[in-house]
Design a protein that fits this description.
The complex is a heterodimer of chains A (340) and B (622). Helix content of chain A is 31%, strand content 19%. With 340 residues, chain A is of the alpha/beta class. In chain A, helix 6 packs antiparallel against helix 10. Chain A starts with 26 loop residues before the first helix and ends with a strand. By secondary structure, chain B is an alpha/beta fold. The chains are: A alpha/beta (340), B alpha/beta (622). The interface between A and B is large, with 60 and 70 residues.
Chain lengths: 340, 622
């Protein structure tokens, strides 16, 4: 980029300076780096207005490494604590770092309700499809049949699809990124910041110790372009090194087409629309379908009013109606009597 | 039917002045008994009587009509002198059906007054109430003054020309009963008429109907000759001031709003509805003009978690709940202890364990409040003594939370949460001064520096140059970095313990009521106050040597607790649990108190405590 917006900060300003203690090679390093590189460009935000809230897990150490306000809380409750922070102080820029266990298992309930309330919090879900901090048990995003320390005969559960789940509970900004694609992740961080309402980014993150290579099938550099489709609003869903593959919608069924097969052209490709919940759902179903490319990018970006704005508006409305509350009148109540 | 009599024919009944009366309205849970009781108590309060109320209702919203377990009651005790309880026994029972009569007879005084709705005493209702014979006809009520009134029929007759659907018309019958009681106690229905006008202002037909029925009840008392006596209860000699009638849950809500204002903070409540605490959430959600933010969370955990988030953000975070909800909040309380953030946790206790008795009262969460957390995890615990004391203790909980940067648990219970009494209105200027201080100076700032009280600095996110991280992992003294250092861990544990202990320098000492030179000291906490205070007052009046001290601060306990305990030979501890305060006293002061425990979902009655005191004084207990 030639024209960089002038900012007060550099990436270094966002580093707390303490030793980062993730395992060497962990995907979390890249996510931390992309956050620190993106934050100087966050429009209209001062560093002291940024708050990072996390739960428990490897990813939840994140706030300690950021030189912002931070609160490392308890397992699963980051979404609820962040909701309190943002509702209390809407002027703060609130971010949440969480993992697949923290967010979707023990914290599943809070995650659901955060999204439906549409509180303007930016959620970074580090999805490595395994429990890392507790050393290798299956997580709610682990594949069916997967052998882990707590599923020696294979996982008998089916995984949750975080993108479809977020859509189902009325999320307004839903995106997917990969730890290995730095620029794309940075772009999504900016988009999440600009979105008013809850922003949810599922970041596919490699756990080098307990689930190494979980996403290699899609994300390895040598075949990434052929196996990953980048969603772009109003643009055809085309991918491949030669830009020769595309997604076509056949009724409600998405199909993979070859643009060089003589039967299809770019005009057959589905034009992605990030304002469509229906489309977001259909495309989210590609996950774990080996025949289909991995969709990344913004699945959905729509606008509802936010919880905190509605709350602020109610306070203004009540004050307009009843005036700034007089506490002594309140204490006295409507029916009182005097003893002389 | 109503006896037809003209004004001129009837003679005026005698007006008898009495000191102290207890009236109970009882009927089906759909009969409007709670509303009727509340209307009567508001009217009584406006006459300057001291009063105590006790709403008692089933967990079922609309239990099957006529069933014994569906009976809902509202007791009002009012008096011309100071009273502390809703009364031990009732003078007047209004029974809207046989089940209400059956359930409440055991509380009725000998020769007490029973007003029954005779229209409901049919075979079906008698069977539902397990009456083999009609008690109105079999002579079983001969020891009482029974007034048989066809309340339903009279109500329908009154509303005949309004052509209302039968269901709606018969719903007005509670106001007929209320009218009769207003007449009996010589009270004007004005307050209730105003209330009706306001409540149903969008439905003039209902204003008209309820007004007519209430007046019909009054006229019934006046016109018929079934009552030969009316009663008068002179106003009580209350301290000068402005008064209002207040229940404990509303008092908590008001106390929190006032405390936030006093501290210069915004109030944030994160809460999940639960009986009997939901009213606190409801009251506060109607106070947006005071800047109050209420967050009805997805569960109990999120209730406290959002409140912790608000406290971290620099507001007064509060969560309200009852026992089962407390159980769910315990991990988050630990976080607030570790993060050293101010937080008020209100537990309106109910019967437990588990779901227990949701609508009944109990004091069995004291040890839960004290200890139910992992690790060494001290929190301050305070308890309200009466409905209006809920205001004072809510303010205290907030004051201590802010000053000591700690969670504070406020214990009330269903009895005082729903019960009401007159409250001498406090103004905000009369509250203790405690302004929340936020650190804004980055010079030499560290998140776990401590002041003279051992409280750490509170910093609002958004303050430039003071970005810092806190969390549930053990923190390094002063600097607040994560620390696994063994000595640091022990030091921090002791520091957090000492910080809570320091509160003892900031709270009033135990006060001794009654005979200071007595051998026997009664010690109580929470809502047992009223029954014990009445009992001790009566005993002292009888010339018995007994003293009384009441705990409103449970952790830490007042500084003089040990001295007080050691100066009495015998300590009696009545509790609505199996002896939880006794356990604490035994543990802290190595004494052997005489326990008096009652765990029936109902509060103590003063006479029960009196009997116990007399037994002990006679030497028949230990």
């Amino acid at each position: 980029m030639s024209e960089k917006a002038e900012t007060k900060y550099t990436a270094k300003d966002f580093s707390s300076g303490i030793d980062v203690r993730w395992c060497p090679g962990c995907g979390d390093f890249s996510i931390l780096a992309q956050v620190q590189r993106s934050f100087p460009q966050l429009v209209g935000v001062e560093k002291e207005k940024i708050v990072f809230i996390s739960g428990i897990g490897c990813s939840s150490r994140f706030p300690y490494y950021m030189n912002t306000y931070g609160f490392h809380t308890i397992h699963g409750r980051a979404a609820a604590i962040a909701s309190g922070v943002k509702t209390a102080r809407p002027e703060l820029s609130v971010w949440m770092a969480t993992g697949d266990g923290d967010c979707l298992s023990i914290g599943g309930n809070h995650f659901i309700h955060l999204l439906r309330r549409n509180i303007d919090i930016n959620v970074l879900l580090f999805n490595n499809r395994i429990y890392g901090l507790t050393k290798g048990q299956n997580s709610p995003t682990s594949e069916h049949g997967k052998v882990t320390k707590s599923t020696p005969m294979g996982n008998v559960e089916y995984p949750v699809n975080p993108i479809a789940m977020a859509n189902g509970v009325e999320g307004t900004f839903i995106a997917r990124a990969m730890d290995v694609d730095a620029k794309h992740l940075q772009m999504l961080i900016q988009r999440a910041h600009l979105h008013k309402g809850t922003s949810f980014i599922e970041i596919l993150q490699n756990c080098v110790i307990f689930n190494d290579g979980a996403f290699d099938n899609f994300t390895l550099k040598e075949h990434r372009e052929d196996r990953v489709v980048y969603l772009e609003h109003d643009k055809p869903m085309v991918f491949g090194k030669q830009k020769d593959k595309a997604i076509k919608l056949d009724g409600f069924t998405p199909v993979l087409i070859d643009l060089n097969d003589g039967k299809h052209s770019i005009n057959d490709a589905l034009i992605y629309n990030e304002k469509s919940k229906e489309l977001a759902y259909i495309i989210s179903q590609f996950s774990d379908n080996p025949a289909m490319p991995l969709p990344v990018g913004v699945f959905l970006d729509i606008n509802y009013t936010t919880f905190e704005d509605d709350m602020t508006a109610q306070i203004a409305e009540a004050r307009k109606k009843f005036g700034e509350g007089d506490i002594n009148t309140l204490l006295k109540g409507k029916s009182y009597w005097e003893i002389n | 039917m109503i006896e037809e009599k003209t004004q001129s024919e009837h003679s005026k009944p005698d007006v008898v002045t009495v000191e102290d009366v207890t009236v109970r309205f009882a009927g089906d849970s759909g009969d409007g008994m709670q509303l009727t009781g509340a209307q009567f108590s508001d009217t009584i309060a406006s006459y300057g009587n001291d009063l105590g109320t006790f709403p008692d209702y089933p967990a079922e919203i609309r239990a099957p009509a006529g069933s014994l377990y569906g009976v809902s009651g509202y007791t009002i005790h009012f008096s011309s002198h100071d009273i502390y309880t809703p009364g031990d026994q009732i003078d007047v029972l209004v029974a809207m059906n046989p089940a209400a009569l059956k359930v409440n007879m055991r509380d009725l005084k000998k020769n007490g007054v029973i007003i029954v709705n005779t229209d409901t005493f049919d075979r079906k209702n008698l069977e539902l109430a397990s009456y083999k014979e009609n008690p109105l006809e079999d002579g079983s009520l001969s020891g009482y003054n029974v007034y048989k009134i066809p309340i339903t029929k009279s109500t329908l007759e009154t509303l005949k020309e309004l052509n209302l659907p039968l269901k709606i018309a018969s719903k007005c019958k509670n106001f007929f009963a209320l009218g009769v009681i207003y007449w009996l106690y010589n009270k004007s229905p004005e307050l209730t008429l105003n209330w009706i006008g306001d409540k149903f202002k969008k439905n003039p037909e209902l204003v008209e109907a309820n007004t007519r029925v209430l007046k019909a009840g009054l006229y019934f008392g006046e016109t018929t000759e079934i009552f030969n006596t009316r009663y008068e209860v002179k106003p009580a000699q209350l301290k000068k001031g402005t008064y209002r009638n207040l229940n404990g849950n509303e008092a908590v809500a008001l106390g929190l709003v006032a405390a936030a204002k006093r501290a210069g903070l915004e109030l944030f409540l994160g809460s999940y509805p639960i009986t009997p605490a939901s009213e606190i959430l409801q009251h506060l959600s109607g106070m947006r003009q005071f800047g109050v933010k209420t967050f009805q969370a997805e569960d109990e955990i999120a209730g406290i978690a959002t409140a912790i988030g608000a406290s971290f953000a620099g507001q007064l975070g509060v969560t309200s709940t009852s026992g089962p909800g407390m159980a769910l909040k315990t991990e988050a309380i630990g976080l607030a202890v570790m993060a050293e953030l101010p937080l008020v946790i209100v537990n309106v206790q109910r019967g437990g364990p588990s779901t227990g008795l949701p609508t009944k009262t109990e004091q069995a969460d004291l040890l839960q409040a004290m200890f139910a957390r992992n690790g060494e995890c001290p929190v301050a615990v305070v308890a309200a003594a009466s409905p209006s004391d809920c205001f004072t203790m809510a303010v205290e909980a907030a004051r201590l939370a802010i000053k000591y940067m700690t969670p504070v648990i406020l214990l009330t219970d269903g009895y005082i949460g729903n019960g009401s009494e007159p409250w001498r209105v406090t103004t905000i200027e009369e509250l203790p001064e405690f302004t929340a201080k936020f650190r804004t100076d980055p010079q030499d700032f560290h998140p776990y520096l401590r002041d003279e009280n051992l409280a750490r600095p509170w910093v609002k996110p958004g303050t430039p140059g003071m970005e810092h991280r806190i969390g549930g992992l053990e923190k390094q003294h002063i600097y607040g970095n994560i620390s696994y250092d063994p000595d640091n861990h022990e030091f921090m544990i002791k520091t957090r313990e000492q910080k809570i202990k320091n509160i003892e320098n900031d709270i009033p000492e135990l006060e001794i009521i009654g005979d200071k030179d007595a051998e026997l000291l009664v010690m109580s906490w929470g809502s047992t106050f009223g029954a014990v205070a009445s009992a001790v007052e009566n005993q002292v009046a009888k010339g018995n040597k007994v003293a009384f001290a009441h705990f409103r601060y449970l952790n830490p306990m007042p500084k003089n607790t040990e001295a007080v305990i050691k100066s009495y030979k015998k300590i009696l501890v009545p509790e609505v649990n199996m002896g939880q305060l006794s356990k604490l006293l035994r543990m802290n002061y190595v004494i052997e108190p005489i326990q008096y425990n009652k765990v029936k979902g109902t509060p103590f009655k003063a006479f029960e405590i009196e009997q116990k005191i007399e037994e002990i004084l006679k030497g028949s207990v230990r």
